[in-house]
Amino acid sequence: MCCQIQIIVDKWMLVVCGICTICSHLDRLYKLDYDP
Fold it and tell me: Of 9, 23, 28, 33, whose CB neighbour count within 10 A is largest?
């Protein structure tokens, strides 16, 4: 999904691609990895 690519390129891009539901899940998973 575009979200997967966007989040990898720039975590902030996820906001622009917020239309994807998967983004929300990835955002939480990535946040846990970056900020435990």
Answer: 23
